């Protein structure tokens, strides 16, 4: 399925048209943020495509019998629709409606997760090939499953990755942060869709920051578009610093918008910490020159007014989190890691 001219919709509201490589905006308030900052709708569609480098992505496309496997053709197979927002596209002149293209089931989650030949062989025979996996972005193998009428995202994870994700969730929650819920199950971590089947639109930060991950620039942008989100942003990068999370990028944090008005509601819950802590082995002794620590401390020197957003952490809190998770890890090493990193942040603030 390919077409070069199309309408961009939010639910059943046409918000823009893409014709002859030019964007005509019809509803500025409802327009995806990406198109506020970059007027290229094809580029926006590409940003919604499953990562072609994931091995199971290639298997998925083969099972779906996609003739064209480039990012735009892949996304157009499901009209650009995703689980986490209400945006989609249709050919100009089409009478398709949102109810026709949104996802009500997913037969391809197991193939996207495991890539087994049994799953490949089974799904290759299916006639219904609409699946949210084609717009399920990210570098890890993952899949959407419907549980009691609620979408859950499953992500493959080994023992250390599971622990790291759960620890981040529990620690952030204990510190009063707005965290996406996580639990472990059979070699995966899973989390419910925090948009509640696109009751809100999730706008990843790449929509307004591009690939720019600079803390100062991001805070400045948030002050303009959603001042209340700055506190949550500061808490997020603080948590990343103390749990050694190197994988914060502009696709795994963002904002929630009202699907009826386009207005910004809040910073999205914090998610995606499976590369933190011990996910790639137990880190060495914390150092003040650690990149995440120094980046955070430099940011705070530029913005001392944000110190009020930073919570305090005690060793008792870390122990409580470890006991709650109850997974086999080197607990004292985790305590030393978190409290050591926190110590360099606190020390820098006290000087």
Question: Could you please describe the fold and organization of this structure?
Answer:
The chain has 351 residues and is of the alpha+beta class. It has 2 domains: 6-156, no CATH class; 159-350, Phosphatidylinositol 3-kinase Catalytic Subunit, Chain A, Domain 5 (Orthogonal Bundle), CATH 1.10.1070. 37% of the residues lie in helices and 16% in strands. It has 14 helices and 11 strands. The protein has helices at residues 33-37, 41-46, 55-63, 71-76, 98-101, 109-114, 117-123, 159-174, 206-209, 215-225, 229-242, 291-302, 315-325, 331-350, and strands at 6-10, 13-19, 22-25, 87-91, 142-147, 150-156, 183-185, 188-192, 200-204, 254-258, 264-267. The strands form 3 sheets. A 4-stranded antiparallel β-sheet has the order 3-2-1-4, with no helix packed on it. A 4-stranded antiparallel β-sheet has the order 5-6-8-7. Strands 9-10-11 form a 3-stranded antiparallel β-sheet. The longest helix has 20 residues, at 331-350.
Short note summarizing the structure:
Helices cover 37% and strands 16% of the residues.
Q: What is the CATH class designation of the largest domain?
A: Mainly Alpha
- The strand line-up of the biggest sheet is 3-2-1-4
Number of helices: 14
H-E string: EEEHHHHEHHHEEHEEEHHHEEHHH
Beta-strand content bin: 15-25%
- Structural class based on helices, strands and sheet pairing: alpha+beta
Query: Which range best describes the helical content: under 10%, 10-25%, 25-40%, 40-55%, 55-70% or over 70%?
Result: 25-40%
Biggest sheet statistics: 4 strands, antiparallel
Q: Total strand count, please?
A: 11
| Inertia-based shape | globular
Distance from first to last alpha carbon: 61 Å
The whole-number mean of residue pLDDT values reads: 95
What is the fold named in CATH at topology level of the largest domain? Phosphatidylinositol 3-kinase Catalytic Subunit, Chain A, Domain 5
Reported CATH architecture of the largest domain:
Orthogonal Bundle
Low-confidence stretches: none
């Amino acid at each position: 399925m390919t077409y070069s001219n199309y309408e961009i919709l939010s639910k059943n509201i046409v918000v823009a048209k893409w014709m002859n490589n030019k964007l005509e905006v019809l509803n500025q308030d409802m327009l995806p943020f990406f198109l506020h900052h970059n007027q290229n709708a094809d580029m926006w569609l590409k940003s919604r495509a499953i990562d072609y480098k994931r091995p199971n992505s290639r298997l998925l496309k083969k099972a779906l019998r996609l003739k064209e496997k480039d990012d735009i053709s892949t996304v157009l197979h499901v009209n650009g629709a995703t689980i986490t927002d209400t945006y989609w596209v249709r050919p100009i002149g089409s009478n398709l409606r949102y109810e026709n293209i949104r996802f009500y089931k997913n037969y391809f989650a197991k193939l996207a997760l495991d890539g087994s030949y049994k799953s490949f062989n089974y799904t290759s025979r299916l006639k219904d090939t609409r699946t949210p996996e084609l717009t399920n972005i990210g570098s890890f193998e993952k899949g959407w499953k419907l549980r009691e009428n609620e979408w859950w995202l499953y992500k493959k994870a080994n023992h250390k990755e599971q622990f790291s994700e759960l620890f981040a969730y529990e620690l952030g929650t204990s510190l009063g942060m707005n965290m996406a819920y996580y639990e472990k199950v059979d070699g995966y971590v899973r989390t419910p869709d925090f948009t509640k089947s696109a009751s809100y639109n999730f706008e990843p930060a790449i929509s307004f920051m591009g690939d720019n991950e600079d803390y100062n620039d991001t805070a400045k942008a948030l002050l303009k578009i959603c001042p209340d989100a700055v506190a949550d942003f500061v808490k997020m990068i603080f948590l990343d610093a103390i749990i050694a999370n190197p994988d914060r990028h502009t696709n795994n944090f963002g904002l929630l918008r009202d699907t009826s008005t386009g207005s910004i509601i809040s910073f999205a819950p914090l998610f995606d910490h499976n590369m933190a802590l011990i996910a790639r082995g137990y880190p060495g002794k914390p150092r003040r020159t650690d990149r995440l620590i120094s980046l955070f401390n430099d940011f705070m020197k530029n913005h001392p007014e944000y110190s009020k957003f930073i919570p305090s952490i005690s060793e008792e809190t870390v122990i409580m989190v470890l006991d709650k998770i109850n997974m086999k890890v080197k607990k004292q090493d985790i305590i030393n890691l978190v409290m050591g990193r926190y110590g360099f942040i606190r020390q820098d603030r006290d000087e």
